[in-house]
């Protein structure tokens, strides 16, 4: 069993537990539930940099990346740097995140927020909306075509955008549908953790132009982005590169100004 399989088993258990503690009515009563969302896909289309900066404390492959910042410091730094949007990891067991991180981010900035999570149930999409997210991530590797269809439709009905993450041609082919806004190619193989920009390059021409193309993971240099832009990528998700420094916001400012 690989790490992704383990995460999904734990996630399904976690969702069952949460459903028994926090009813849907409580999520729907949240102050953010009725909030108008901000479009990340639109911001990426209009941006020159296309940076989606990530708040991430740790990961299964790197263990602790950084525990020294407050969420507010990081996300305000990213907003000041001119990031198009911010990805907030909310998985606790493997990434050290929480829904409180998303809530704090929403209270601190006014740019699009992605709930970065292993979504397997509509309940998690309601949680995302209740905690101030503007969009959700769906991972093709762990969902069937029918699940992608129903979860993306559910998100759209709540006014959330959908970023669908793929890693190979097979995942892409089963996933293409009108209820998606952005298609992201993960340059990290979630099963082996091997990283290569070739994944983004090889899949670029297969992604229809109706979707905003996003390249995720393993992007640590200006050169990498300049290499990917000719392939039609408008968004670039960067996490560890900023978080592993002493000042994530300053690292993002330096990076984006160079771009």
From TrEMBL:
Pathway: Amino-acid biosynthesis; L-tryptophan biosynthesis; L-tryptophan from chorismate: step 4/5. Its EC number is 4.1.1.48. Residues 4-251 form the Indole-3-glycerol phosphate synthase domain. The keyword Flavoprotein does not apply. It comes from the Bacteria. Keywords: Amino-acid biosynthesis, Aromatic amino acid biosynthesis, Decarboxylase, Lyase, Tryptophan biosynthesis. InterPro entries: Aldolase_TIM (IPR013785), Indole-3-glycerol_P_synth (IPR045186), Indole-3-glycerol_P_synth_dom (IPR013798), RibuloseP-bd_barrel (IPR011060). It catalyses: 1-(2-carboxyphenylamino)-1-deoxy-D-ribulose 5-phosphate + H(+) = (1S,2R)-1-C-(indol-3-yl)glycerol 3-phosphate + CO2 + H2O. GO terms for molecular function: indole-3-glycerol-phosphate synthase activity. Belongs to the TrpC family. HAMAP family: IGPS_B (MF_00134_B). This is Indole-3-glycerol phosphate synthase. The gene is trpC.
